[in-house]
Amino acid sequence: MKWNSIVVKLGTSILFLVLAILLPLGFIMNQIFTGFYFNKVQEQINELSSRYASSITSLEEKDILNMFELLATMTDQEIVIVNEQGIVVANSGLPSLPKGERINADDLSLLVSDALVQKEYYDKISKRRYLSVGRPIISQERFLGGIFVLASVEDMYQSLEIIKKSVVLAGTGAVFLAFGFTFIVSRKLSNPLLEMEKATRKIAKGDLNTRISSSTKDEIGSLATAINDLAVELHRYRSNRREFFANISHELRTPITYLEGYANALENNLYRTEDEKRQYLQIIQQEAGRMSKLVQDLFELSKMEEGKLALHFEEIDLIEVVENALLKTKIKAQEKRLQLEFNKVYHLPTIYADGLRMEQIVINLIENAIRYTEKGTINIKLTSDPDRVKLTVEDTGIGIPNEDVPYLFERFYRVEKSRSREFGGSGLGLAIVKQLVELQNGTISVKSDVGKGTCFELIFPISKGDAQ
Ligand code: ADP
């Protein structure tokens, strides 16, 4: 396992979190517990010492002193009584202060000055700790000595020790818990991530058939699905690119062969008449034109696909656009004796689009209709409803088989491979049209019957300013 892996980070965070809660909690508990306990004991021995001190009138009576010693053995406290010189005259059982021993001079002077002696006392012989209160014994305004009441705090220190041990134990438990958690999570989280890493590296090396098997429905599962989708997409992209280059070289090879052949014929004077020579030159011109159109179309399409085509959006009237397109395609239609019909409406809501690009779309569709129609009429219709405008270009031409319709807008897709070349198309027209329509927020669809004709339908949203 790597030290900078997510699992280790997670484990350490949990450990820190648990310790961050446990340590202050232990400290606070310790403070509250000791504070509370000390106060209570202090109060108790204060009161007792006061009661005892006021009940002593003389230190001469042995019986009274014995009674106090006896009294102390029946309670948790110890009692030490000293005379006016600070010499112990009664002791209920504190080994370090036997009878006859002198107490510390500071304590005695406090008692003499009628002050309380409050302190923690450590009995060196029994090795026990006490809270002690010493109080002067005054009878008839005469200082007789002092009484010390001592309560053992050993039990409390033992309880504190237990609390400290519990905190340490809980801390150690937290460390083990964090390690255990790290171990479990590493199996649940880290292993699938490592598997994904391996798979993505394989995909990056070009093995696009690699897939990750994941059955979970959580974030890891969706990451695995996303990587699988990426691999599928890359696979599709790679085959598209391969197909695209094959198509381009195929498209370029034909005109280049023509150009080479006819230029060669002209160079070697392989023509019989001037007419033949002119015919050869015309072919060269046509093929060069075709090549230039192909390159231009490809350039335009790649710009659109990369989102780099600048469109000039404005409010446009589709009636005007269609009329301009009709003017430009009229001659081609006349050459084939085809009728171009436009159901002229007098008012149409405007759409927000690029006028020139819109004209390019309409010209392309009309030219296709002319190209693939031998006789009959080409109908262009404009209609609208409250939120959209519809443009249809319908012909009475050769039609498109149903199975070809889904692929019609793909680059270089042709219904019959030889058919479009014979008619002079590059196979990119509809791909460009679809891109342009979508860039202008429109949709395009097609309906066709083989032998009867084809109808392209374009829908654009009405611009907001013109919506009723
Ligand atoms: P091209 O430049 O070859 O015409 P397009 O992308 O414009 O390429 O069209 C793709 C194919 O769709 C054409 O090769 C043709 O087979 C078919 N097609 C397009 N428009 C029509 C139409 N109006 N009638 C019949 N077939 C059509």
List the SSEs and their pairings.
Elements: H1 6-55, H2 62-74, E1 77-83, E2 88-91, H3 105-112, E3 117-123, E4 128-139, E5 142-152, H4 154-204, H5 219-267, H6 274-305, E6 314-316, H7 318-335, E7 339-343, E8 351-353, H8 355-371, E9 377-385, E10 388-394, H9 417-423, H10 429-439, E11 443-449, E12 453-461
Parallel strand pairs: 7-9
Antiparallel strand pairs: 1-2, 1-5, 3-4, 4-5, 6-8, 9-10, 10-12, 11-12
Helix pairs in contact: 1-4, 4-5, 5-6, 6-10, 7-8, 8-10
The chain binds adenosine-5'-diphosphate (ADP).
Organism: Cytobacillus oceanisediminis
Domain Histidine kinase: 247-464
Domain HAMP: 187-239
Compact description:
With 468 residues, this protein is α+β, with helices and mostly antiparallel strands. The protein has helices at residues 6-55, 62-74, 105-112, 154-204, 219-267, 274-305, 318-335, 355-371, 417-423, 429-439, and strands at 77-83, 88-91, 117-123, 128-139, 142-152, 314-316, 339-343, 351-353, 377-385, 388-394, 443-449, 453-461.
